[in-house]
Write a structure and sequence with these properties.
The chain is mostly helical and 138 residues long. The chain has six helices and no strands.
Length: 138
């Protein structure tokens, strides 16, 4: 297996959790190199990022199990919670956004939004972002 793909998978996974990181530079560099087919790079980055978002969603789900009381007291977190309750999993199309995407996944899990729809919207949002980034470097 190609080490660059494993690196991209790890980078995109970590970037989609609450840990700091960014995978856009890795994807751009690999696209620019041209050694690996574009569809394989996109598939790898999207898979890693979606798995990371899914893990963050699951962490929120587990937190709700043990801490079902009001968890979010920051005004920005409360606004995100209100927004998620009002619009549902559709908001997770924005899970790709820096600084707000990961907390949205966590709060969506904590609110126990439909996991199937949530993961589909996480996947779609992240896929669109990576396709856009890759298109800049093709």
């Amino acid at each position: 297996m190609n080490y660059e793909l494993w690196g991209l998978l790890a980078s995109s996974f970590i970037a989609s959790t609450l840990l700091p990181g960014g995978s856009e530079v890795a994807l751009a560099w690999l696209v620019n190199q041209g050694n690996i087919p574009l569809f394989l790079l996109l598939l790898t980055a999207i898979a890693g990022n979606t798995l990371g978002g899914g893990l963050t969603f699951l962490i929120g789900w587990l937190i709700a199990k043990y801490y079902p009381a009001k968890l979010f007291n920051n005004k920005h977190q409360q606004r995100a919670q209100t927004w998620l309750v009002k619009h549902g999993p559709l908001v997770l199309l924005l899970s790709w956004m820096p600084l707000i995407g990961d907390p949205l996944c966590l709060i969506a899990g904590w609110l126990r939004l439909n996991p199937i729809y949530s993961l589909l919207y996480i996947l779609l949002g992240k896929a669109l972002r990576y396709i856009f980034i890759a298109s800049l470097f093709v």
